[in-house]
Design a protein that fits this description.
The chain is mainly alpha-helical. The chain contains six helices and no strands.
C-alpha cells in the first residue's frame, strides 16, 4: 500500500483498510455471540471436569514412563489452575456468570495468562527472559494454543450442553 510520496494513504489503500476492518468487526461480533451462548450454559463439577479434560487432555503413554508421568502431572496442574480461576477468576463469581461455560473458558484463559513466578530468579535479565517467554507463549506458543483449544471446545460444547 504505497502512499506515492504523500503522507496520506491512497484511496485504494483506504478502501482496503475499510474492507479489512469490516472483516475484523464481523469476526468480533461472531465471537461475542459465541460468548453469549457460553454464558447461557450452566455447568456443574462433572461437566467442568469433562470440559477441562478436553482442553488439557491426558498425554499418550509412550515408552518413556518418566516423561509420561511428568506430563500427566503438568496436565493435572493445568486443570487444577483453570478450575481455581473458574471459581476465583476476575468476574467469574458475578451473577449470571458463575457456574457457566463462559466462566470455565474464562478460567482457562486467566490461568494461562498468569504472570510467571519469578520469585526464585536473581538477576533482572533472568526475570525479563522469563516474562518474555511467558508473553511469547501467551501470544503464539503453547499458551495461545491452549486458549484457542479452550474456545473451540467451549463452542462445540455449547451445542451439546445448551440448557
Amino acid at each position: 500500500m504505497s502512499t506515492g510520496g504523500s503522507l496520506f494513504p491512497s484511496a485504494e489503500g483506504l478502501e482496503l483498510a475499510r474492507h479489512l476492518l469490516g472483516i475484523v468487526g464481523k469476526r468480533f461480533m461472531e465471537i461475542e455471540e459465541e460468548f453469549k451462548r457460553m454464558v447461557a450454559v450452566q455447568i456443574d463439577g462433572a461437566r467442568l471436569q469433562q470440559y477441562l479434560e478436553r482442553v488439557f487432555p491426558d498425554p499418550e503413554r509412550g515408552a518413556d514412563n518418566d516423561r509420561y508421568e511428568k506430563t500427566l502431572r503438568e496436565v493435572r496442574h493445568d486443570r487444577a489452575g483453570a478450575e481455581y480461576f473458574f471459581v476465583q477468576g476476575r468476574g467469574n463469581a458475578a451473577k449470571g456468570v458463575a457456574g457457566t461455560l463462559w466462566a470455565a473458558y474464562n478460567g482457562v484463559a486467566e490461568y494461562i495468562d498468569q504472570p510467571p513466578d519469578v520469585t526464585d530468579l536473581k538477576s533482572p535479565e533472568a526475570i525479563t527472559k522469563a516474562r518474555d517467554r511467558k508473553l511469547n507463549s501467551m501470544w503464539v506458543g503453547d499458551g495461545y494454543s491452549a486458549k484457542a483449544r479452550a474456545f473451540s471446545v467451549a463452542a462445540q460444547t455449547v451445542k451439546l450442553w445448551a440448557n
